[in-house]
Automatic annotation (TrEMBL):
InterPro entries registered for this protein in UniProt: AAA+_ATPase, ABC_transporter-like_ATP-bd, ABC_transporter-like_CS, ABC_transpr_CbiO/EcfA_su, Co_trans_ATP-bd, ECF_ABC_transporter_ATP-bd, P-loop_NTPase
Cell compartments where the protein resides: Cell membrane
Record keywords, A-Z: ATP-binding, Cell membrane, Membrane, Nucleotide-binding, Translocase, Transport
Family under the similarity heading: Belongs to the ABC transporter superfamily.
Molecular-function annotations in GO: ATP binding
Classification lineage: Bacteria, Bacillati, Actinomycetota, Actinomycetes, Kitasatosporales
Domain ABC transporter: 20-250
Protein name: ABC transporter ATP-binding protein
Membrane-topology annotation of the record: Peripheral membrane protein
Principal location: membrane
Function of the molecule: Probably part of an ABC transporter complex. Responsible for energy coupling to the transport system.
């Protein structure tokens, strides 16, 4: 290394910490049921990762550790370098935006605008900054024109988009989506895919919809019986018949995972 390159590299900022770092995470429910046995998972900033696995694999249990709803029995979780711990819980919950499967679990205010404003208002943001953040989040999900509507007057697909806005407005480090394509008609499913591809954000997507995982997530992780059974490029994992059968993963009849490449960006 020359003196000039050494000087330049010492001036470069260090790379950002991973968006998500899970190390040796183990968890047993209070009734003694062991749901996770030492999970290690690192997701770098900007990655989109599908979390796959059969019913009961431990996917929800893992997600509930990301924002401190559950506390590890062993191991640790960090979000952009900040440990998930009681003393950091408010900041952790801002950094981890979880979109639950049922948007009605997340929407409870009289209007869309108030639902999207709820999180930042609770964090002390007021006035023009609050209005600007809410407007920007609704624009991101294409729902600005519905701002004054009651959420329960919207379609399921529209409510899911508003639920995404309620977490985007917090400017999270990582967006965690639980079954984002469930109950969506084909057009809403595609529109949500386009929306997710337009976001410059780290994504962890829990899904049983394997074509959706393939389209949106270049990388997939298979969780099975509380351990990571595979971690790699989604097309490779979904083309591995033995792996798929061993973990009860099934593609739709006739679907060839080699016929689709993960999309990098929205059209
Ligand atoms: N509150 C609880 N008390 C005891 N055991 C639980 C509890 N919640 C989940 N479990 C068990 O922990 C294991 C993991 O469950 P989890 O909900 O994390 O699986 P999952 O991969 O999200 O499944 P699914 O695809 O069906 O949503 C399962 O065996 C489940 O029965």
């Amino acid at each position: 290394m020359t003196a000039a390159t050494a000087a330049r590299s010492s001036a470069e900022p260090p790379p950002p910490p991973p968006s998500l770092e899970v190390s040796g995470l183990a968890y047993a429910y209070p009734d003694g049921h062991q749901a996770l046995y030492g999970v290690d998972l690192t997701v770098e900033r900007g990655e989109r990762v599908a979390l796959l696995g059969p019913n009961g694999a431990g996917k929800t249990t893992l997600v509930l550790h990301l924002n401190g709803i559950l506390e590890p029995g062993a191991g640790s979780v960090a979000i952009a370098g900040l440990p998930v711990a009681k003393r950091h819980l408010a900041e952790i919950r801002r950094r981890v935006g979880i979109v639950f499967q049922d948007p009605d679990d997340q929407l409870f205010m009289p209007t869309v605008r108030e639902d999207v404003a709820f999180g930042p208002a609770a964090a002390g943001i007021r006035g023009p900054e609050l209005a600007a953040r809410v407007g920007a989040a609704l624009d991101q999900v294409g729902m600005a024109e519905y701002a004054d509507r009651p959420p329960h007057h919207l379609s399921f697909g529209q409510r899911r988009r508003v639920a995404v806005a309620t977490v985007l407005v917090m400017e999270p480090e990582i967006l965690v989506l639980d079954e984002p394509s469930s109950n969506l008609d084909p057009a809403s499913r595609r529109e949500l895919a386009d929306l997710l591809l337009s976001l410059d954000i780290t994504v962890l997507m829990v899904t049983h919809d394997l074509p959706y995982a393939l389209e949106l997530c270049p990388r997939a992780v298979v969780l099975s019986e509380g351990v990571i059974a595979a971690d790699g490029p989604t097309p490779e994992l979904l083309s591995d018949g033995e792996l798929m059968a061993a973990h009860r993963l099934e593609l739709p009849f006739g679907f060839d995972p080699r016929s689709v490449s993960p999309r990098r960006t929205a059209p």
